[in-house]
Amino acid sequence: MSSVDITPVWTPTLQLGEGTLWHADSARFFFVDIMGRAVHAWSPSTDQRYSWPMPEHVGWIIPCADGQGFVAGFRSGFVRLTLEPVLRIERLGTPHPDQPGVRLNDAKADAAGRIWAGSMFSDNPQEARGQLACLHPDGRIEVVERNIHIANGPAISADGTVMLHTDSLLRSIYRYNLGDDGQLQNKTLWKTFAAEEGEPDGMTFDAEGHVWVAMWGGGCLRRFNLAGLELQRINLPASQITNVAFGGAELDLMLVTSARVDLAPEQLAQQPLAGSAFALRTGVRGLPAHAWGLVN
């Protein structure tokens, strides 16, 4: 176990906080409330907060390489999203046409400008209708894996050769080799968690090559090396921990999201900070976030 200072930086109103991102150009952390249908941002330097209502469920946002806004994962598919000075939405396409119950859930970009995005059948996650898709820099959408229950937490190593991806319902994280050509190969089961540990959710690599995993139902962040050995655990004042990102000028500040959804009134009374976003420092630095699209 590890004791660190944990500071709530967003009031406990997030139904399903997710999609943490450090946006260096604006020096803000962005995150979403999937069920609350909103994108939020927090500035560590000014402590200012921002919110943008969305027309449908939104799982994440990732910056565009041309500096013009973001790509967002809406329930209905990929969109280009401009937040400021006015809200603009441009549809890019969907990996799950004619499947209205399936929605995009979590995603990461790699150094080549691709977005790896997972989905889930939100009407009944017990059904393995989720997919893992790749949004290529040219806008082409490729489904690379099917039959996933709750796709979560893509995490890509600093050298771009390893990707971890989760099926949260199975409490399992899988490891892939990621080729220069964008092909995923050699899928192996990297780690499975016992029911009492909770379900692995969002993930991110740090600058030392280790991975941080948010534990839904486990109330903590856990840090592992690539051999799967736990190096550190940070308990948080909410049981449903959903995602984590490094940010700040030195990439040494962590933002962690949580959720209130599905908690009974007595659980919420015991967890008054459930649905908050938390900031903490562990002395570890993270990796800069990649953008979608071709980089000139």
How would you concisely characterize the structure shown here?
By secondary structure, the chain is mostly beta strands. The chain has one helix at residues 265-270, and strands at 6-10, 17-23, 28-33, 38-42, 49-53, 58-63, 70-74, 77-82, 88-93, 102-109, 115-121, 130-135, 141-148, 151-156, 162-167, 172-178, 184-192, 199-205, 211-216, 220-224, 230-235, 241-247, 253-258, 277-280. The longest helix has 6 residues, at 265-270.
Features:
four-stranded antiparallel β-sheet, mainly beta, 24 strands, 296 residues
Task: Write a structural description.
The protein has 296 residues and is mostly beta strands. Helix content is 2%, strand content 50%. The chain is built from one helix and 24 strands. It has one helix spanning 265-270; strands at 6-10, 17-23, 28-33, 38-42, 49-53, 58-63, 70-74, 77-82, 88-93, 102-109, 115-121, 130-135, 141-148, 151-156, 162-167, 172-178, 184-192, 199-205, 211-216, 220-224, 230-235, 241-247, 253-258, 277-280. A four-stranded antiparallel sheet has the order 1-24-23-22, with no helix packed on it. Strands 2-3-4-5 form a four-stranded antiparallel sheet, with no helix packed on it. The protein has a four-stranded antiparallel sheet with strand order 6-7-8-9, with no helix packed on it. A hairpin with a 3-residue loop joins strand 19 and strand 20. It is globular, with a radius of gyration of 17 Å. The model has no long low-confidence stretch (mean pLDDT 96).
